[in-house]
## 1
Amino acid sequence: MSQVAEAPASRDPDELADPASYDGLALRRLTKHFGAFHAVRELDLDVPRGSFFALLGPSGCGKTTTLRMAAGLETPSSGTITLAGKDITYAKPYQRPVNTVFQNYALFPHLDIYENVAFGLRRRKQKDVDAQVRDMLELVELSSQARKKPTQLSGGQQQRVALARALINSPEVLLLDEPLGALDLKLRRSMQIEIKRIQTEVGRTFIHVTHDQEEAMTMADTVAVMNAGVIEQMGAPAELYENPRSTFVANFLGQSNLIEGTVKSRAADVVTVDMHGVDVSVPASRAHTDGDQGWIGIRPEKVLIGEVGEELDAPGNTIPGGVVSDVSFVGVSTQYLVRMPWGQELQVFSQNTGRHRLFATGDEVELSWRPEYAFLLDAAQDASAGAQRMDADG
Amino acid sequence: MAWLRKHLVLILGLLVLVYTFIPIFVVVLMSFNDPASRLIYRFDGFTLHNWANICEDPDMCSALGRSVEIGLLSTAGATVLGTLAAFALVRHEFKGRSTANLLIFLPMAAPEIVLGSSLLALFVGAGFAGQLGFWTILIAHIMFCLSFVVVTVRSRLAGMSDTLEQAAMDLYATPRQTFWRVTFPLVFPGILGAALLSFSLSFDDFIVTNLNAGQTTTFPMYVWGVAQRGVPMQVNVVGTLMFLVSIVIVVGSELNSRRRARALV
């Protein structure tokens, strides 16, 4: 179920479903360019029916363009879009069973909430509009606001109207374009739970476009990380987080320490890498490069920190010679920066379990991690790709 | 002195209002005038005669009727054409769009006397010298109202994001339904404003009309003509009526927008 869209030459076509018989949404070699700018490049993607799917990536990565092509609001330059076996690549937006929750909701300001929600039903001359609208308003808990105009509602309420207005049409696929971007943090958290609840309740396919990695991981059962018009990696949130295949994914989803290493030997199930004089081992299933060089990756919370010579609960990779260069105490955990003998500063998140004393700046420490948590990435990739600045919104 | 300083702004404001309203006050007053002589413009006595016999001079009423007719027709023509042009200029990418945007401004900037005389030259050159009248006036009025309509509707459209139309299409509205259900209702205030502006521009126009009217007389031309030999007091009645109609429209739209604003609280 997890596929990686790599260079077209190395793609394994067997991994993708046959669009003609697939009951979900299938994008094949989908490309969109605006003049010389390639927004989406030969994208292959299967979105299973009934799944909550997130397209995650930084702004400008092509995720919104992909969504708009699925909605019919943008015409692909080439490639196909198939929904439940039917080719809808060039179908008009009003001819496809797909509805969108727009980024700024795009509620009709001259219509009240009731009429906004009824809009799609009325266009398709549906019967019992009234009962359906009432049910839908109940689902999003806005029954008492039916006769108000959109501008009279709060941001969160408007968001729910936008959701109701799209969902009432029982679309095969519901597209959500950064639906929570305009809300404040607290409201965003509660809407994440709300949308997830509604998705479970109605059981429809949701495709959620976002640049917020936390939002994607909390809500979706499958996340596709997009960068520069291609999908870097796709899978369950935990799988992406624990076993990233590129430096971009390693940095964009959470944070990673990426350390230069030289491959010494490759066994069937383990790769041994020389990391600045220390041998560390990486499971073969987590080594994503065939080269002699690589980035050894380890998540900050997987790194253990201890006194020099202390027996740490992590057989295998122990790296001596660290000096604490920065300490941030955040209550449940402490975040350290540890300067290593080769000059690099590694991040360490240590749970405040009380087993260890708090280290201070200048303390000499040893680091360690369980080999099964490490991963090995292609040395040719930029170690800072996808790293989010501290001031980036999210 | 301190009192004066404190109320200076208010006093000046009131004076400006008085200044702007005195002519209108005179018009209203004169509509009740019982003049001793047509040649002396002076309030001689109160009467309702002018109001009861508006069409005492049938020429005035036929000129008035013609002006209203031309006003309504040119409003309709200019509003439809101008609205379509505004949509094209805002919603469609085409070669020469920015040039068209500039050109549409020129008739507003050009002096009326220039517009009027060049139109006359055009009509005469095209062989319509003998047929100057109702139709040439109408063509001229539609032409100079058009720019104002385009500018008014364009600004309304430009402030409206096309996401709403995309949302309508996404919700199964065909392009035609999208236009009538979403676009048109949202642009309507702009179109209405443009129509009102067109009517008053057309009704009011003297220079361009006079040059292209031939033997036809509109209301402003009639007033100009009779001014030499004494304006009938009924002209003031018409003036007062026009003023009342504008007040009703302004107050009506104000009340309407207040009602909407209240609904938004």
## 2
Amino acid sequence: MTTFIRALLGATAISLAVSPALAEKLTIATVNNGDMIRMQKLTDDFAAKNPDIELEWVTLEENVLRQRVTTDIATKGGQYDVMTIGTYEAPIWAKQGWLVALDDLGADYDVDDLLPAIRGGLTVDGKLYAAPFYGESSMVMYRKDLMEKAGLTMPDAPTWDFIKEAAAAMTDKGNEVYGICLRGKAGWGENMAFLSAMANSYGARWFDMDWKPQFDSEAWKATLTDYLDLMNNYGPPGASSNGFNENLALFQTGKCGMWIDATVAASFVTNPNDSQVAEHVGFALAPDKGLGKRGNWLWAWNLAIPAGSQKTEAAKKFIAWATSKEYLELVASKEGWANVPPGTRTSLYENENYLEAAPFAKMTLDSINAADPQKPTVDEVPYVGVQFVAIPEFQGIGTAVGQQFSAALAGTVSAEQALQSAQQTTERTMRRAGYIK
Amino acid sequence: MARRATGTRKLVVTALAWAVGLAIFFPILWTILTSFKTEAEAIASPPSLFAFRWTLENYVEVNSRSDYFLHFMNSVVISLGSTLLGLLIAIPAAWSMAFVPAKRTKDILMWMLSTKMLPPVGVLVPIYLMFRDFGLLDTRIGLIVVLTLINLPIIVWMLFTYFKEIPGEILEAARMDGASLWDEVVYVLTPMAVPGIASTLLLNIILAWNEAFWTLNLTAAKAAPLTAFIASYSSPEGLFYAKLSAASTLAIAPILILGWFSQKQLVRGLTFGAVK
């Protein structure tokens, strides 16, 4: 019996020594997009460099992910060691003390190489709280062939008046070609992302310096009226239910003359495997109204560590790996420069190989640089964020206002009614939340 | 003449039944067809029903990206576990309500059902906190408990309806013959209520299999069932319909097959007591 117990103890000791008992398991929550999936496939490189860290992935659709990580971080559930969060959550959660500051990601991380516009949105009180994995803005994608046929030339930095003129000239409803495709589906990250950015260029803003909603301003009226005018006259039918994917499908099948949306779409519409119009696509900056602001947004998916995580050091190692310059080179060596996650590092846009492989690179960089989350509007505002307002109440009011504007596009309410309802809803919420008396 | 009229009527009713059946089944058929298309064909307009290049690439991609077997096993354990645990509690509860009703039994039944009227998100945070404190987050046991609780009212109600159909005299006779309470429930009541229990079991397995609020919110990597597997293939920016369809087809296939083989019991159970 003693021999048996000894043997058992010996076997246990050996198994403990052999098994990676010290391996820490990091649970990482990510969104389902091409760049994130590519990262999961490349984790062998991280594992080789960090044999003591094991990675476990939880991939989810954006809205499900947002709900789940918000619940977890607010209740300190501790289910995740690394979370993928947007530029909307980063400043709010950092102020709440929910995130670990990322001010020591290693000597060779080169934090100054991060694009200033993106870095600014993730910094609170001078400290970086989330590391950008990929960044995007919005821009005009257009059909060069249709533009030529219409006898027009797209400038690099068009105005909204030109966009309207071009949309009218390119529309050929008989052949199912619509001059312009824009988001119409209700949601703070759907139609309101586009409309808030458009409103910025019209001189409109969500709130004045006293947090009073501004939907009763002339600038918002002009924004919504011009948007409805564009879409009703030159847009596709049923546009009030179109989001990114629906417009992508329309553009790729040759049904849109112009599409103003996320810069990330550039790689889809120029990919001949999926797009029927791949060789005809041109790019331009988002339009303006001559007031000094363009109608483009700024967004990034970032990696952050929830406060109270027991595995902070391992999580930092992972974040430093995934958002480093070396990671970009790793992707380039395995999948080509065109597939490198864009919009985070200045050095990428100085890399000749990348500029050659991605014809839309310069326009992406110019668009990102043209957006300033700290000063998003013509007039001064008390908030941070270009196409959103970085306050916790925004998800609710953004979606409620989005529903009004989507209804206006569907024709069930007028522009005036939609703006009036938007004003009332926002005022009520802001009063309840204590921003206004 | 009358016979011909009956024949025509039968034909019309049959055609109508097929049309309704196909209309109900169409979304599932469309999902299955889309899973064999390329991403570009999945969004093509006008869409093609059968004339496309059939491919298995989505299934290959889905299997290489996710651990289907892990999610499948989680779904099996969670749905079976919660249903069996639910039956274990509900059979005695339904017995007492059906055969030894008290003054407030009807009210209790209504109250049980009223718990289903609360939107689940209303109790998400309290339940999340309890799960965190008891170490139940991302565990199969935690999900079995929560799914048992949310399906328990339905199980009790269904069993109560079946038990009410069984004459109390039979149980009385068993008691006269010296059967204990345990013997009465196990050897007399349960065998007589087998069709009802079977359909309750099947319906609850389906409900638990398809539950997509708690299973998504209370799990991360270890206990995530097939609902989380499907949710990982949806994306607001990028083409995903074909891969999402492949994941959905893989997720619904087992329950579809189970439903197909047990449709007789399901229909019988659901219509039990409908016509008196």
